[in-house]
Amino acid sequence: MNILSAWFAKVGEVARVAFRHAGELGKLTWAVIMATVRLRVPRKELLTQVYNTGISSIPVVLVTGSLAGIVTSQQGGYQFQGAVPLYVLGSVVVQTVILEMGPVLTAIVLVGRVGARHTAELGTMVVSEQIDAYHSLGRDPVALLAAPRVIAGVLTMPLLVGLANIIGVVAGMVAAYVDVGLGFESFLYGARLFWHNWDLFYSFSKAVVFGTAIPLISVHMGFQTRGGAEGVGRTTTQAVMFMTLTILILDALFPPLLLN
Fold first, then answer.
1. What total of structural domains would you count in the chain?
2. Mind giving me the DSSP string for 158-181?
3. What does pTM read for this prediction?
4. What is the mean pLDDT of residues 48-64?
5. 116 vs 53, 228, 236, CA distance in Å?
6. Cα distance between residue 161 and residue 164, in whole Å
7. Does residue 141 sit within a domain?
8. 144 neighbors 42 (Cβ within 8 angstroms)
9. Who has greater pLDDT, 25 or 208?
């Protein structure tokens, strides 16, 4: 009986925390929207976050995208030899990179590189009472700190996903030529054979959703930080976990919503 009561208490506590975070995220989202609509977002900070989120992430996104294309091409070439026409490998690489690997791997990269940074920065500002100083001066931390990060994520994520898609397809095409001798024309023929224009919309829809979710969660967790330096580390770890799970859950929701 005591075990059952403890189990229900644990479930209730988890539900309470989940609903509290959902409510705080909703309030943060609304505050970011209002700050953006009212043009209260500082341009300099926005440009800084665009650089930190987008331009600085290009090298690692290019490496990740190229490796995704190469691995997909190598595994597909191994499985297709003697079973199906090799030109189908072009479709497999293009569809896999554009529909899945490009958006998801780019999002995971941004979780570790940008999301964790946002949480740590804002968490440090919270525990050092810099956020309280903003409030005492009549400044809005959401407009000054949160909105630029969220807008930068929404603007730069589609561009990063586009770069990952392009480099992934090119790298996969070169790998197919090197590994199984599939010519570029045959690769492109296979890619066109099963191509749908909707696939690009699907890929960039993922990019926009992921680019919104990552900064929102990271900023929210940063503002929730408590407990000094140890709290910053703990909250950053939790934020990375929450962002990663959110990306995977959202990714699982896309096929039934947009591919059927």
1. 1
2. HHHHHHHHHHHHHHHHHHHHHHH-
3. 0.91
4. 93
5. 12, 17, 6
6. 5
7. yes
8. yes
9. 208
